[in-house]
Amino acid sequence: MARKHGINIDLDQMLAGLPAPPAPPSPTKVAPAAPVAPPAPTTVAEVAAAPHIVPTTPKATATPGAPVAKSVPMPAPVPMVTVRIPTLSPDTATIQVGPMPSSDKQDKEEDDYKHSPLSAIADQAMNGYFFFAAWGALFLALSYAAAVRIAERESARYRAAARDAELKALRYQVNPHFLFNTLNSLSTLVLKDKPDEAEKMILNLSTFFRTSLTADPKEDVTLAEEIRLQRLYLDIEAVRFPERLSVDIQVPETLKNACVPCLILQPLVENAIKYGVSRSKRPVNVKIVAREDSEGLVLSVEDDGEPIDDNGASKGTGVGLRNVIDRLRARFGDEASCRHGPLPNGGFGVTIFMPLIRDGR
């Protein structure tokens, strides 16, 4: 079949028309002579002028007196095909060797299959399969994401509940200690026959507990409210130490709306009374100071009582001081800190640092 720029040759048809190669000759007992093959054509013109080559098998000849060689089977010769194209120019002609193009009948069969109902059904089935597979994968992904979100919310809720329980336990841990000391003071007043002072102490104690117990331990109060609660406590202790206790509170007006954990100062003030005032024979001043610096809000409680020896309070292992440190860590994490230790001129001081958060922010 000729084309515009070349000729397609069906090699199968050409090889089918060639004669079958002859069977290999029977082995002889003479040495085979080397056949002399004609030179192969090298140009297109020589190919065109060369005669049709038919495969042949060289014949063996015997030489008298020559030794007899062992018989060696000869391999079957490979058929050779010579194509003669005398009418084509070597500069413009091309030969393409390959499979024959499909026939019109085959194209028609393929076209009929593409437009057949069976092909449409197969295409719809494949499209539906991938569609449902995609929807299934999307559904599984959304379900997994929802389950992860639910688990995270539950975990956050449990952590918040544990944190609230911890804050409540730490906050209420102070009250029994304080109540024990106050009841001892009331007992002393009754024994000394001081009913008016005992009545005042009971009223202050009632107000202090009502205010402290109704406040939510996981919520903050303003610094002004915290100072008011500490004044109630110091008024109760002043009944016990009327000659030895003096109070100095320094809180700027600009910091009275700062938010602090409820009763965060009470254990520090209680320690100042317990270790500074009660153990001293002279007047002791308890100072509460609030200030603002680059780290935020700074609160300090100091006393100028007798020097404290190497006991639990000075090491920070007392219940009250440990309570303050734990509450600060639970409320602010690493943003809050606490420093404590003996003062150079005697007494003991505790300074806490926390973020400055104002009420209404």
Task: Give a summary of the structure in a few sentences.
The protein is an alpha/beta fold and 361 residues long. 46% of the residues lie in helices and 14% in strands. The relative contact order is 0.07.
Strand content: 5-15%
Shape: elongated
Spell out the CATH superfamily of the domain at 176-358. Answer: Histidine kinase-like ATPase, C-terminal domain
Write down the CATH class of the domain at 176-358. Alpha Beta
Work out the radius of gyration.
55 Å
As a percent range, the share of helical residues equals 40-55%
Structural class computed from helices and strand pairing: alpha/beta
**H/E element string?**
EHHEHHHEHEEHEEHHEE
Reading side by side through the largest sheet, how are the strands ordered? 4-6-7-9-8
Annotate the secondary structure layout.
Elements: E1 7-9, H1 11-16, H2 44-49, E2 95-97, H3 104-114, H4 117-191, H5 195-214, E3 220-222, H6 223-240, E4 245-250, E5 259-261, H7 266-277, E6 284-293, E7 296-303, H8 312-315, H9 319-332, E8 337-342, E9 348-354
Parallel strand pairs: 1-2, 4-6
Antiparallel strand pairs: 3-5, 6-7, 7-9, 8-9
Domain Signal transduction histidine kinase internal region: 165-245
GO molecular function, one term: phosphorelay sensor kinase activity
Region (Disordered): 18-39, 91-112
How would you characterize the overall build of this protein?
The chain is of the alpha/beta class and 361 residues long. It has a domain at 176-358: 2-Layer Sandwich (Heat Shock Protein 90), CATH 3.30.565.10. Helix content is 46%, strand content 14%. The chain is built from 9 helices and 9 strands. It has helices spanning 11-16, 44-49, 104-114, 117-191, 195-214, 223-240, 266-277, 312-315, 319-332; strands spanning 7-9, 95-97, 220-222, 245-250, 259-261, 284-293, 296-303, 337-342, 348-354. The strands form 3 sheets. The protein has a 5-stranded mixed β-sheet with strand order 4-6-7-9-8, with helices on one face. The chain has a two-stranded parallel ribbon with strand order 1-2. A hairpin with a 5-residue loop joins strand 8 and strand 9. Helix 4 packs antiparallel against helix 5 and helix 5 (195-214) packs antiparallel against helix 6 (223-240). The longest helix has 75 residues, at 117-191. The chain starts with 6 loop residues before the first strand and ends in a 7-residue tail after the last strand.
